[in-house]
Amino acid sequence: MNMSQWEVVIGIETHAQLATVSKIFSGASTAFGAAPNTQAAPVDLALPGVLPVLNKGAVECAIRFGLAVDAQVARKSVFARKNYFYPDLPKGYQISQFELPVVQGGHVTIVVGQGEKSYEKRVNLTRAHLEEDAGKSLHEDFHGKTGIDLNRAGTPLLEIVTEPDMRSADEAVAYAKALHALVRWIGICDGNMQEGSFRCDANVSVHKPGTPFGTRREIKNLNSFRFLKEAIEYEVRWQIETLEDGGSIQQATVLFDPATGETRAMRSKEDAHDYRYFPDPDLLPLVIGEDWVERTRAALPELPEAKKQRFMADYGLSAYDATGLTASLETADYYEACVAAAGQASAKPCANWVMVDLAARLNKEGLELGQSPVSAVQLGGLVARIADNTISNAIAKKVFEALWAGEGSTADEIIEKQGLKQITDSGAIEKLVDEVLAANAANVAEFKAGKEKAFNALVGQVMKAAKGKANPQQVNDLLRAKLAG
Questions:
Q1: What are the backbone angles phi and psi of residue 423, rounded to the nearest 5°?
Q2: Cα(3)–Cα(235) distance, rounded to whole angstroms?
């Protein structure tokens, strides 16, 4: 199999569950985890004589998204009935949007890879439309039977559809992560993939460059970025092997099995005409006034790309650092609060502490940023003490651990309590240097013979004598001056 001779084409459809307290067409709760069938109103159950009433909050979420991706928010859109039979779809149809969706066009900019090999790419969106979710079929607890839980039926979704713009699993994952961050940033979806609040379908095809696109297969309901990557990579290999062996690809819907790392066909893929879409007679067209759009625009937070550019301009950060710090609104807010406490001159050190030291500790403990025992103000206070030479970087790590353990409320308190203040008195440091040079004649001779490692050994001896509290730069400068004399 020669994968380099093939081009991969990927489009992503994402279902983002909207952060409303009630369903899209009824007043039933959308809270997760309730006992089966306790949050299903008559509208959700499709009882005779009931009529849907559109949730204004769901529309507000759609407008926010449309503005965030620079799309056209349709001033008039229409709800349609998407007809198909499934046990957890009580009406026998799903209320969705087809020919006139509420959001049209737009784009998401992604960064693929890291470091010098990273690159930016624009992924264009086809549309984003409002629809209701179906219920859930339960197989595990019913031997030989299927249980139906309709709590999820009628939950508001925004289905976000891309153009077939991605050319690798890495690009698809970068897009999914960027979209996930965006919907959380603007507050329209909690992004909880374990609970199904954010799930992706990947349309994958392969073809030889210069030939028409191949037949696509849709991988359904991918609820983790790792599964998205693994599923696409397997599907690409399978399609290429099939074609190189003389076979053909049939359009189909497939599922990914994480246990085997393989996709398997679920059903032949339906096209739009198979669903027999037609306008829902129970719902009037959705008309969105310009004043509503502008009110929503004014309420949007500063968006990730704008914040990234501001971080680069105001704080002198690299594109890589600014991208990392705007990966989520929570991270960006934490960083800015840290800089406010430390002072703008310490913007770069604050970035390093947030993205490296703090991130590593959170990852080790399995915590989210919001669960950090060290607040942004506390971390900023720590960075400020490094900047004014009260402590060294090495001592700062000890202070950070003490803050994490709750041994003090501020860096200053811990520094004072534990006697960690850095020695900056040149006379005191010079005395330590003289004592070390006198006691380590062998290292001095090795250094003068051209062995640089001997210098590091001397620095270590001085720092040991100072119990780690001497200013490292002063130690280095004094040692070199003494050795050169």
A1: -80, 115
A2: 12
Q: What is the pLDDT of residues 33-75, one digit of tens each?
A: 999 999 999 999 999 999 999 999 999 999 999 999 999 999 9
pTM recorded for the entire structure: 0.84
- Here the tokens at position 227 are 């599964």
Record the tokens describing residue 314, joined without a space: 């105001």
Check residues 95 and 442 and name the one with the higher pLDDT. 95
SS3 assignment, position 470? strand
Q: Residues with Cβ < 8 Å from 121, sequence gap 6 or more?
A: 109, 110, 112, 165, 171, 174
Can you tell me the distance from the alpha carbon of 12 to that of 171, in angstroms, rounded to the nearest whole number? 11
Q: How confident is the model at residue 480 (pLDDT cuts 50, 70, 90)?
A: confident
- Please give the single-letter amino acid code of residue 81: R
pLDDT band at 138 (very low <50, low <70, confident <90, very high): confident
Token digits of residue 7: 């081009």
Indicate if the alpha-carbon torsion angle 331, 332, 333, 334 is positive or negative.
positive
The amino acid that residue 104 corresponds to is Q
Amino acid at 52: P
Give the C-alpha distances (Å, rounded to integers) separating 366 from 360, 362, 363. 10, 6, 5
CB of 399 within 8 A of CB of 382?
yes
Residue of 479 and 251 predicted with greater confidence: 251
